[in-house]
Amino acid sequence: MASFSYAALDDNGKEQKGIVEADTPRQVRQILRDQGLAPLQVDSAQLKTASNDGANVGEAYATPSLFNRGPSIKVGELATITRQLATLIQSSMPLEEALTAISQQSESDKLKGVVLAVRSKVMEGHSLADSMADFPRAFPVLYRATVSAGEHAGHLDLVLSRLADYTENTYQSRQKTKLAMLYPLILLVMSIAIVSGLMAFVVPDVVEVFIGQGQALPVLTQALISLSDFIVSYGLLVIVLLILAVSGLRYALQNKALKIHWDRRLLGLPLTGRFSRGTNTARYTSTLSILTSSGVPLVDAMKISAEVIENSFLQQAVTEATQQVREGGSLHQSLEQNGYFPPIMIHMIASGESSGDLDAMLERVAENQQRELDDLVTTLIGIFEPAMLLLMGGAVLIIVVAILQPIFDLNQLI
Q1: pLDDT tier at 60 (50, 70, 90 boundaries)?
Q2: Edge-to-edge, what's the strand order for the sheet holding 38-44?
Q3: Residue 2 within any structural domain of the chain
C-alpha cells in the first residue's frame, strides 16, 4: 500500500485534511465516501515535492535529491517515535504493524506522512534503514547507521531501545540548555533596552536644562551627552552595520579553509574554547559509543561520528585520526595527537583498548564528558547572570551620577 494525502468536506461543509493508506487514489476516494466525506483532492504523499515543507498536509515526501531532502522532524518527535517503535518491537509486534500504530498515534500530519511513507517502503521489501534513507532530514546519518547495524545483527529491538535513550537524552539536554539560557538572555535584552532608552530619551531632556543655563558641565556629564548624541544620530546605522558584519562573517565562513582557521582560533579562547571543546567532545563520544555498541565497525563509527562535530578544526582532526585507525593505529593515540581532547578521555579510551572492553569504556567516557559539559554550562550561566546584573546596575549608576553631579554643583553655587 501507498500513502495518500487528501482534502475532503464533511457533512457540515468543513474541510478535512489527512493521510490514509490505500492501493490507488480511487480506493482513497471510496474510503472517504464510506466515512461520510466528500473528496476534494487526493495526492500521493510520496510524490509531493519539498518546496512547501511544513506548509500543509500534502507537503513533500519525495525521494531526496540535491535540492529536495524531504521534510524534517523535531528532535522531540524523533525521540518519541523511537521510544514507541522500540517498545512495540520488543513486544514482538511486526515492524509494519508497529509503524502503522505509530502513524495512528501521531497528531502531526507531517510526521504521520513520514512514518507511513517509511512503512510503504518496508512493505515493498526494503530494510528499515534503507526506507529511512529517503528522509535524511528526518533521520540523521547516525540514526540510520545505528538502525542498519541493529537489523544486520538481529537485535533491532535492543538497538532501538538504546537509540531511544540517546535521542531522549539529546532532547532533554537541549531543552535544559535553552531553559537555562532564557533568564540570562532576558537580562541581556532588558539591560540593552533600558540603557539605550535612558541614553536616547531621558538624558537629552534632563541635560538640556543645564545647557540652557550656561552652566559648565562636569567631564562625566559631557561624555554622557556625547554618547547620547551619538546613539540618537547613529544608533540605527550602528545596528545595520552590525547586522551586515555578522552576515558578512557568516558568508565568509562558508569558505572551508577560513572556517577551519576561525574554529581553531575559537578553541584558543578561554571560555569559548572550553565550551566548544566540551560540547563537541561530548557529542562525538556519545555518538561513537552508541555506534560501536550497536555493532558498527570502529572505523565506520568514527567516520559517522565526525559528522556530528560542529567545530570544523576538530572535525578535521577526527577525520585524520580515523585514517590513522584505518591504517592500524590505536584509537587513543590517534585522538591524542591533535592535543585538543581531554587527557581523561584519552586515558579511559586507552584503558578500554588494553582491556578489550572498548564499547563499555566509550559509554563511560560519553557519560563523563556529558556530565562535565552540564557542569560547565551551569557554571557559565551562574557567572553570566550576576555579571549582567552588575553591568546593568553599573551603567544605570553612571547615568544617574552624570545627571546628579551638575545638580550638586548648581546647589553649591546657589
Answers
A1: very low
A2: 15-22, 2-9, 38-44
A3: no
